[in-house]
């Protein structure tokens, strides 16, 4: 694991000591090389885990998420280059350092083997994200957004700390690999119910679950592009990943404790998808679509069947790439017209046809078109929830329909039709933007050819 | 690299048109075969007058147009050399190294499931299929039966001697 962690740490001196016109080139280059190294962890030869050391291990669940995290850093750097071009040099370097610090914490979180270590880093990821949102966001609402983001997550995760300390006391160790073999069925008692709630609420808030999702539209919308990308692509998956790890300790309570959250998720995904149909703000639409997709992951993790876990893992990776790409596309609009309102920049297909191609592909992957991995994830989740309870197919079916509706609504509003008269003089697409979209899309399409690496440990 | 339908030349033209106005004709020419006339335009060289009311959707005058100074801009930086190198670095390391070598690495990963446990957890499926096809081909070519009813070769089994 050090072969990724040390280079990531060294990226920080690289930004501070590079020549001013080389900071972006150097960090992007080495970020891409680090992502190449992280692909080695995808070589998971058996059911067991690859243990790098006493503190770090990688599993077929954490390896794809690790690859996604390291792939995203160079993409975030490319996406931020334009809006930071007028900032003074020190602030640019500070921004890049925040991104690198966040990447470092995320790498360690996904590979932590001890649960308290995982918790510390889970909380630590909040700090660079908060700084990025509140310092470099564009509107005054960013302060409120940062507050919501910070305190929702903290409220959820304080009980998790208490629960982890209790479990450590009770079991003797919280090393994830060892407690897998020591766990006993959790008897049904009030204190164990509260233990279950304490463990799960942090991840429910992070995912987010429908009732606790208010921080997400605010944070995603107010964050600058790199902040939105990392929030949507990776930070949400922290919740899914944490839930999949911690549910091994909480059986068999999950069988009945999961019901309220299943109801909230099943209903919530339809609600948030419907909200997407009424959005005027482009980034807000993409944010609510993230809530909807993550609700599917919550359903999958709470059902706890092999197929649903495979679907959850595939959906996390697929949604990470798709959502990040949609935010990049929304940002390319925002940089030209300085507004997030969808109807202000419509009919873009005639003006920017190549960008329209990326919009089309991103919308198609968002609505889970076969044979992309988005479809594989959603299909596995739908099938396993059907076997859990037949009625869920109605709700899932409605959700898939509405997802298609709002994805196409977003595509048609921004791309089709006659362009509005005042955007005739927008600048043509930069190579940087096209490269960014391609770098999001190609891994997604390549994974459709070989999805077994993202199907997680139960494949 | 040229963005879609707009080639590099067309982009230069668009960039120039956005900043300096459309190119003009300097002399008057009348066609002899048709009634076409090319004349110096009355609005030649004049830029669109600054609007008296500024709307929110008008292009922000503080927005720098990267194409103005450098029509071949790739969108990374104002300095053309840094911009070019940034583009090259992204494409080389992003596509040629990571995507190509990474995909090759992933494509040639060994059989993913449970190498150590063939039957119980559905491991080594792809290897098993390839090995079976290879053996069938070999046995058919050499006239051997495809499958024998003995799992092990009976001549190699050494039984302990009968003891009374």
Automatic annotation (TrEMBL), chain A:
<dbReference type="GO" id="GO:0048039">
    <property type="term" value="F:ubiquinone binding"/>
</dbReference>
<feature type="transmembrane region" description="Helical">
    <location>
        <begin position="116"/>
        <end position="133"/>
    </location>
</feature>
<feature type="transmembrane region" description="Helical">
    <location>
        <begin position="309"/>
        <end position="330"/>
    </location>
</feature>
<dbReference type="GO" id="GO:0031966">
    <property type="term" value="C:mitochondrial membrane"/>
</dbReference>
<comment type="similarity">
    <text>Belongs to the complex I subunit 4 family.</text>
</comment>
<dbReference type="InterPro" id="IPR003918">
    <property type="entry name" value="NADH_UbQ_OxRdtase"/>
</dbReference>
<dbReference type="Pfam" id="PF01059">
    <property type="entry name" value="Oxidored_q5_N"/>
</dbReference>
<feature type="transmembrane region" description="Helical">
    <location>
        <begin position="256"/>
        <end position="277"/>
    </location>
</feature>
<keyword id="KW-0679">Respiratory chain</keyword>
<feature type="domain" description="NADH:ubiquinone oxidoreductase chain 4 N-terminal">
    <location>
        <begin position="1"/>
        <end position="109"/>
    </location>
</feature>
<dbReference type="GO" id="GO:0015990">
    <property type="term" value="P:electron transport coupled proton transport"/>
</dbReference>
<dbReference type="InterPro" id="IPR001750">
    <property type="entry name" value="ND/Mrp_TM"/>
</dbReference>
<keyword id="KW-0813">Transport</keyword>
<feature type="transmembrane region" description="Helical">
    <location>
        <begin position="223"/>
        <end position="244"/>
    </location>
</feature>
<feature type="domain" description="NADH:quinone oxidoreductase/Mrp antiporter transmembrane">
    <location>
        <begin position="112"/>
        <end position="401"/>
    </location>
</feature>
<feature type="transmembrane region" description="Helical">
    <location>
        <begin position="54"/>
        <end position="73"/>
    </location>
</feature>
<dbReference type="GO" id="GO:0003954">
    <property type="term" value="F:NADH dehydrogenase activity"/>
</dbReference>
<feature type="transmembrane region" description="Helical">
    <location>
        <begin position="284"/>
        <end position="303"/>
    </location>
</feature>
<dbReference type="Pfam" id="PF00361">
    <property type="entry name" value="Proton_antipo_M"/>
</dbReference>
<feature type="transmembrane region" description="Helical">
    <location>
        <begin position="389"/>
        <end position="413"/>
    </location>
</feature>
<keyword id="KW-1133">Transmembrane helix</keyword>
<keyword id="KW-1278">Translocase</keyword>
TrEMBL record, chain B:
<feature type="transmembrane region" description="Helical">
    <location>
        <begin position="89"/>
        <end position="109"/>
    </location>
</feature>
<dbReference type="GO" id="GO:0045271">
    <property type="term" value="C:respiratory chain complex I"/>
</dbReference>
<comment type="subunit">
    <text>Complex I is composed of 45 different subunits. Interacts with BCAP31.</text>
</comment>
<dbReference type="GO" id="GO:0005743">
    <property type="term" value="C:mitochondrial inner membrane"/>
</dbReference>
<comment type="similarity">
    <text>Belongs to the complex I NDUFB11 subunit family.</text>
</comment>
<keyword id="KW-0472">Membrane</keyword>
<keyword id="KW-0496">Mitochondrion</keyword>
<protein>
    <recommendedName>
        <fullName>NADH dehydrogenase [ubiquinone] 1 beta subcomplex subunit 11, mitochondrial</fullName>
    </recommendedName>
</protein>
<keyword id="KW-0249">Electron transport</keyword>
<comment type="function">
    <text>Accessory subunit of the mitochondrial membrane respiratory chain NADH dehydrogenase (Complex I), that is believed not to be involved in catalysis. Complex I functions in the transfer of electrons from NADH to the respiratory chain. The immediate electron acceptor for the enzyme is believed to be ubiquinone.</text>
</comment>
<keyword id="KW-0999">Mitochondrion inner membrane</keyword>
<keyword id="KW-0809">Transit peptide</keyword>
<dbReference type="InterPro" id="IPR019329">
    <property type="entry name" value="NADH_UbQ_OxRdtase_ESSS_su"/>
</dbReference>
<dbReference type="Pfam" id="PF10183">
    <property type="entry name" value="ESSS"/>
</dbReference>
<keyword id="KW-1133">Transmembrane helix</keyword>
<keyword id="KW-0679">Respiratory chain</keyword>
<keyword id="KW-0813">Transport</keyword>
<keyword id="KW-0812">Transmembrane</keyword>
<feature type="region of interest" description="Disordered">
    <location>
        <begin position="40"/>
        <end position="72"/>
    </location>
</feature>
